[in-house]
Design brief:
Shape: globular
Helix content: 25-40%
Order of helices and strands: HHEHEHEHEHEEHEHEHHHHEHHEEH
Structural class: alpha/beta
Distance between the termini: 15 Å
CATH architecture of one domain: Alpha-Beta Complex
CATH class of one domain: Alpha Beta
Radius of gyration: 21 Å
């Protein structure tokens, strides 16, 4: 058998059920890697004792034949998901000491499926960032490095801790959240699979809110099959979440037939942007060739409002954030910085508790919602969002899927774009449009650039058609045959 930390969820599931390996043994191997990768700063809170206890419970269930879909599988949970009895910070100082008395629906679903939680993963503060450098707990380092360059690289954001931990074999899979690309972009940077489901497929209840009309939980894994297994355990209707979709939950794993003959795959011409890394454009062409060789029909499509997507996103998301983050005032939970008056206590707490990027977005959001500017900015952005969604709907009248790059560049060095917020925001140029339209999209690792860094390809599907997205992703994954590992893989592998 391969090293336990190299097994996919599907392989480990079979090994656990056949009693070839025990849940305790598997969890112990992963716990050792969690300790070994501490220099990457991927975790905010480790829960290794809890994981050992959960593994023992899984062993009993497996022995009795009552194990769940993820029984005994060691996972990491992004620190945006509230976890009962375990510190939840959203990467922010303002939530210091917050231990939720309840469990988010998604992490609760995973727990009921038998998953073992190794810890809470580091992230950009309140999920605001593309490089995992805005966390109060310090930046996450990618396990990858450039050839001949020892500068630490960013793992992407905001789910950078999740991406780094999965790539470094410290967890078998992890939860992420995607508001404008925060699952897919770090997945591309880290050489793993990242799936953003359709908005409403996974419950947002118990997930610390950034932008409520955009936030969506999803899995980050090392294979497409694992993403299908994870999504099946995470998703489902939740009456506690008014945006949760009350639709049937298919068996996502059955989508992986390996056959995409006759599938129509659209290539959006507006995604060929000036300044995109030429190696990424070359990989995109390679992806088109793989799809064509597998029997898919390639069709050029137009998404004319794509050029407005980033500007639209960076009005709508900060506006919703300014409203959502008003609840952090030092009164009910988290950090409190005293003042002589109540207003002064509010001001002191928020000044000390929020980082620079969060403050920037709150200020932008408050401005675009203010009297005299609401119509000029926020209302107009909502209208453009509707046009972007219409572009996709019209494209999907001709095609079944869209194929595009995931990110315009490979991972960059820590601090490289730190002082330029606009350069950071441009990282989301290929991921934001699908988020604004609420569509399912997946990033798969498809190759390495000349510096030995991973590059990702993205597939975008119709609403609630994750089955077709997964089917095509499985075919491209097979064609790409991506087996590269980062240099920093824990426990001396």
């Amino acid at each position: 058998m391969a090293a336990l930390t190299d097994l996919t969820i599907a392989e480990a599931r079979d090994a656990l059920r056949s009693r070839e390996v025990s849940a305790t043994e598997l969890t112990a191997e992963y716990s050792a890697v969690v300790e070994a990768i501490r220099p990457l700063n991927a975790f905010i809170t480790e829960t290794l004792d809890l994981a050992a206890e959960q593994a023992k419970q899984s062993e009993a269930k497996l022995a009795a034949g009552t194990g769940g879909a993820l029984e005994g599988i060691p996972l990491g949970i992004k620190d945006l998901f509230c976890t009962e009895g375990v510190l939840t910070t959203a990467g922010s100082h303002i939530l210091d000491g917050f231990i939720p008395p309840y469990e988010s629906t998604v992490s609760g679903n995973l727990k009921r499926a038998g998953a073992v939680m190794l810890g809470k993963l580091n992230m950009d503060e309140f999920a605001m960032g593309s490089a995992n450098i805005t966390s109060y707990y310090g930046p996450v380092h990618s396990p990858w490095s450039r050839k001949g360059d020892n500068r630490p690289l960013v793992p992407g954001g905001s789910s950078g801790g999740s991406a780094a931990a999965v790539a470094a074999r410290a967890v078998m899979a992890a939860t992420g959240t995607d508001t404008g690309g925060s699952i897919r972009q770090p997945a591309a940077f880290a050489g793993i699979v990242g799936l953003k489901p359709t908005y409403g497929r996974c419950s947002r209840w118990g997930v610390v809110a950034f932008a409520s009309s955009l936030d969506q939980a999803g899995p980050m894994t090392r294979s497409v099959r694992d993403a299908a297994i994870m999504l099946g355990a995470m998703a489902g209707f939740d009456p506690k979440d008014s945006t949760s979709a009350d639709i049937d939950l298919p068996d996502f794993e059955t989508a992986l037939t390996g056959d995409i003959r006759g599938l129509r795959i659209g290539i959006p011409k507006e995604y060929r942007l000036d300044g995109t890394n030429p190696e990424i454009l070359k990989l995109w062409d390679q992806g088109i060739a793989w799809a064509k060789a597998a029997g898919a029909e390639i069709v050029e499509v137009s998404l004319p409002h794509t050029k407005y997507a980033l500007a639209t996103y960076y009005i709508i998301a900060p506006a919703e954030a300014s409203s959502n983050l008003a609840r952090y005032d030092g009164v009910r939970f988290g950090l409190r910085v005293p003042g002589d008056t109540l207003d002064e206590m509010y001001a002191n707490t928020r000044a000390a508790g929020f980082g620079a990027e969060v403050k920037r977005r709150i200020m932008i959001g408050t401005y675009v919602l203010s009297a005299g500017y609401y119509d000029a900015y926020y209302l107009k952005a909502q209208k453009v969002r509707a046009l972007i969604a219409r572009d996709f709907a019209q494209a999907f009248e001709k095609v079944d899927l869209l194929l595009a790059p995931t990110a315009p560049t490979p991972a960059f060095a820590l601090g490289e774009k730190m002082d330029d917020p606009i350069a950071m925001y441009l990282n989301d140029v290929f991921t934001v449009p699908a988020s604004l339209a609420g569509l399912p999209a997946i990033s798969i690792p498809a190759g390495l650039n000349s510096d030995g860094l991973p590059l990702g390809l993205q597939l975008i599907g119709k609403p609630f058609d994750e089955m077709t997205v997964l089917r095509a992703a499985g075919v491209l994954e097979t064609a790409a045959a991506f087996t590269a590992k980062p240099e920093f893989v824990g426990a001396g592998q």
